[in-house]
Amino acid sequence: MIRVTLAALALGAQTTPALAQDHSAHQAEPDPHAGHDMSAASQPAAEPDTTDGMDHSSMDHGTMDHGSGAEASASPGPEMETPPPPEAGSGPPRAADAIWGADAMRASRADLQKTHGDYNLFWFQADRAELQMRDGADDYLWDLQGYYGGTTSRFWFKSEGEGSFDQRIEDLEIQALYSRAIAPFFDLQAGIRQDLAGPDTTHGVIGIQGLVPYMFEVDTALFLSHRGDLTARLEAELDQRITQSILIQPRAELNLAAQDVPELGIGAGIDSFELGVRLRYEIIREIAPYIGVEQTWRAGRSADFARAAGDDPSVTNFVVGIRLWF
Amino acid sequence: MHDTFSRRSVLGGLGLGASMLAAPAWAQGHSVHGGGHSRSGPLIPAGFDEVRGPVVDLSIGSGHRIVQGKRGPGIAVNGSVPGPLIRLTEGQDVRLNVTNNLTVDSSVHWHGLLLPFQYDGVPGISFPGIKPGETFTYKFPIRQAGTYWYHSHSGLQEQSGHYGPMIIEPRGSEPIPVDRDYILLVSDFTTLDPHFIMNRLRTGEGYFNRQQNTWTDDYPMSAEERRMWAQMRMMPTDIADIGGKTYTFLANGRGPNEGMEYLFKPGERIRLRIINGAAQSFFNIRIPGLAMSVIATDGQPVRPVEVDELQIGAAETYDVIIEPGLAAAYSIVAESMDRSGMALATLASAPGLRADVPALRDPPLLTMADMGMNHGDGGMDHGAMGHGGMDHGSMPDAGATPSASMSMDGMKMRDTSLLPPDVAIGPGIDMVSMAPVDKMGDPGLGLRDVEHRVLNYRMLVARDANSDVREPSRLLELHLTGNMERYMWSFDGRMYSAVSDVPIRFAWNERVRVKLVNNTMMAHPIHLHGMFFEMVNGQPAELQPRKNTMIVQPGASAQFDLTANEPGDWAFHCHLLYHMHGGMMQTVAVMGPETAS
Questions:
Q1: Alpha-carbon gap, residue B309 to A45, rounded angstroms
Q2: A43: nearest CB among B305, B438, B538
Q3: Which of B496, B557, B558, B549 is nearest to B525 (CA)?
Q4: Which of A56, A113, A181 sits opposite B497 (nearest CB)?
Q5: Would you state the pLDDT for residue B411?
Q6: Which residues in chain A are closer than 8 Å to B544, comparing Cβ atoms?
Q7: Are B320 and B294 in contact (CB under 8 A)?
Q8: Which residues of chain A have pLDDT under 50?
Q9: Which pLDDT score is estimated for A54?
Q10: How far is CA B3 from CA B8, B184, B268, in A?
């Protein structure tokens, strides 16, 4: 459509775009551009020969949908893709083998294939490594993840843990997952989770991790423990840049359970909900200390379990930590 | 009348650079050693010498470079970055003996040259590469004239300095009389190991972009536009993957403060051969106060066309004629496309004279049109998006409210039903151009609304008529595809690693129209080895300009006609180095005449 418009402009027929619709006229007068001497050094400064800057309000868009525009008449060509003829041959490209020998080519060919496109790399991130401070005890917390693999198929690991400095570690879990891209922005992950603090528990894990519209990083997973307990975790965080180096990150986490799991202090329904915000400064992209505040609520039976253990079901922490990746 | 083309004047111009070279011990390669991209080893000076003759000896070595006080890795040809100017003459036979003094394989690809495919210099496609300590001899006849260049096709060596200019003089006398003949080779320097860059492009989102949208930026964007981009999970500031915080942009190997200088006398006619040897950068070239008359691109002559500015994609070349007036000096400004920095040189009427250097202009932004949402007009190419413009035309029921329109757009940004069946649909495609249009008339990102004359591909007309003007017998449609988040790049949804054994095939002497459809929001300079193609730019077939590298604008299509008359296997790829390594590459196999039926 734009090409037709351009033809109209090139013909100096801005006010009469109908001219540009007449392809037979183009054939008779082969090229509207040729008549328009590009070689002249005195080419007008405001040559409207660009995709924009045109007065499209005067164009009738509805009538511009036919044909393929000026090129068709200037340099005609096929409009539909067709397969190559049989004379184009078949099979892999091996012309160099005939010159240098297949053995000589093998290593470089393998290297080219290995380094151009999908290749494995390692990524590690400590999304949260922080101190959580409130009246009473100070806690520590980590939330790590990383992968080794290619662009769409990866071995993914995660670890979360928290505890108080004066007590035995409270929670410690590690996950080992196979992660496979199922959409441009999403990976399906499956594997196992092992809880190493408290009662030994092994879970099967299936989840989805990725980036949802509006740039929220989400990580959702279902966990089925070896005792048959079903729980779920939904995490979302959003990086908002205040400047090129200062970011604010709201974060939410929801833990759900299909049943009471008294030995883990989990109640059916909403187990806990966390809402936090962190302000971080990227010293370099990979190293960013932060401060923030986070509120955790235990709900329903979980709140009862917490109270029974002498904990407050509603806790506000000030956090200070560092986000690292490499 | 002007003096005829003279070799001395060329050397005079280069001499300013060449005179700063260290002892030519470098050129002999003795002290050169080492392998990868370390910042150790000897200092590699900027600027280049000249080599010529029937036999040319080149040596590849490593060392370190210092640009404006910053130390970075260096891989040099004959001990300098850029490597030496190789000057050849059309019709001669040349033997190029290339010695690899690195500890890893290397190669030299002769960019734009017509030659037997086995000497094209792509390890894994045309030859096995050059092993450490080995000397490989390229030998072929020179069948063309013009401005070309050469670079490594091994690993990421090009980023560290393995590139240099090449001039082939036409048989007989140069038909373009000039007083001086200068080379401006622009490139990008980094202190970083290029493998680190590739890693961070894959793992860190927008890692090298220091011009991102923030709460405090002053981009002319409404809250609604910002919301929409966030909804799409795309960055309108993603103009160049790597910006001026990481790169120092170079003119003939020198940073903007390092005084790259070309001498002139008022009234002289100067041919400036502009080569973009950057790994990952486009440049906007202008000389405030001087017009440039473009006379060749990618080595091939075009009818002179006068402009005030031109955008040069990675690996493109433009020869321009300039005629400096009475000013004491003129600045040659090569602003990176994302306006995060510039390479700078000066045309000086006496050594040391300088002209004003214009400030960097505001960074451009991507628009809906760069996503292939061309609702029947080009009105969205302006810096800020016009929502009014987006609502008219083909989406009658989407205009109720802006947000309704936007969310509909959001859903349509990856309508894979628009892709032909030979495209592999998967996670490697994060966007599909909704209505890709031919944008051969697009001067490039950031130059669509400047006040002065800017070059675009439609303005290029071949000076010499093309010999093959057959109407193409078939259309080959290739889709440029990618996923920014995963940094996957491909043709037709398949990265090179998946199609290394699946070439694009052409029959002997087949005439094919190739349509490239860009389903990404980045401009890709697509390069075909071993052959020139003719850009389908509105000219009749005999006058379509010949090129070997063509920019396909974001969300747009572009076509070229190819006569497949150079048998063998050839590389075909995006010439942004990290896009190529990200997978946007394929082998082109051209059958030989013996196979013709």
A1: 11
A2: B305
A3: B549
A4: A113
A5: 52
A6: 75
A7: yes
A8: 1-72
A9: 40
A10: 12, 21, 9
Question: What letter does residue B254 receive in the DSSP assignment?
Answer: B
Q: What is the mean pLDDT of chain A?
A: 82
**Contact between B538 and A85 using a beta-carbon 8 Å cutoff:** no
> Do residues B471 and B541 make contact, with C-beta atoms less than 8 angstroms apart?
yes
Contacts of B123 (CB under 8 A, 6+ apart): A108, A111, A112, B105, B107, B129, B153, B154
Q: Are B533 and B561 in contact (CB under 8 A)?
A: yes
Task: Verify whether the Cβ–Cβ distance A108 to B123 is below 8 Å.
Answer: yes
Nearest CA in chain A to B578: A116
**Pair type for strands A121-133 and B533-535:** unpaired
At residue B488, the 3 state secondary structure works out as: strand
| Exposure class string for B414-444: b at 16+ Cβ within 10 A, else e | beeebbeeebbebbbbbbbbbbbbbbbbbbb
pTM metric for this prediction: 0.87
Which residues in B lie closer than 8 A to residue A31 (C-beta atoms)? 538-540
- What does the alpha-carbon distance between residue A301 and residue A308 come to, in Å, rounded to a whole number? 10
Size of interface A-B (CB pairs under 8 A): 317
Q: Tell which of A14, A52, A80 to mutate to test the B interface (max B CBs under 10 Å).
A: A52
Lowest pLDDT segment from B25-29, B259-263, B348-352? B25-29
E-strand ranges in B28-173 read 50-52, 55-67, 70-77, 85-89, 93-100, 109-111, 135-141, 146-151, 163-169
**CB-based contact B230 A121, cutoff 8 Å:** no
Sheet strands side by side (includes B309-312) = B260-263, B342-348, B329-336, B283-286, B309-312
> Closest Cα partner for B324 from B297, B293, B299, B302?
B293
Distance from CA of B106 to the nearest CA of A (A): 11
| pLDDT at residue B597, rounded to an integer | 63
For A:241-270, CB contacts with B below 8 A are: 241-244
- What b/e readout covers B40-55, taking b as 16+ CB neighbours within 10 angstroms? ebbebbbbbbbbbeee
CA torsion, points B565, B566, B570, B576, in degrees to nearest 10? -80
Which residues, including other chains, have CB under 8 Å from residue A98's CB and lie 6 or more apart?
Answer: none
**pLDDT at residue A73, rounded to an integer:** 64
Query: Could you give the CA distance from residue B297 to residue B575 in angstroms, rounded to a whole number?
Result: 16
Cα-based distances in Å from B94 to A71, B140, B163, B411: 40, 6, 19, 56
The alpha-carbon gap from A36 to the nearest alpha carbon of chain B, in Å, equals 10
pLDDT band at B355 (very low <50, low <70, confident <90, very high): very high
- Complex-level ipTM: 0.89
**Does the pLDDT at position B31 exceed 70?**
no
CB B294 within 8 A of CB B312: no
- Best interface-test mutation with A: which of B153, B214, B429 has the largest number of A CBs within 10 A? B214
Determine phi and psi for B158, rounding to 5 degrees. -60, -40
A287 CA to chain B: closest CA distance, Å?
12
Instruction: Give the residue from A103, A128, A203, A118 showing the smallest Cα distance to A153.
Output: A118
Please enumerate in sequence order all residues whose Cβ is within 8 A of that of A33, keeping only pairs 6 or more positions apart, or say none: A10, A70, A74, B458, B538, B539
- CB within 8 Å of B477: residues ≥ 6 apart: A81, B420, B514, B515, B517
Contacts of B195 in chain A (CB under 8 A): none
Determine the pLDDT at residue B375: 53
- Tell me if chain B has a CB within 8 Å of the CB of A180: no
Q: What is the Cα–Cα distance from A84 to B478, expressed in whole angstroms?
A: 13
| Interchain CB distance below 8 Å, B305 and A38 | yes
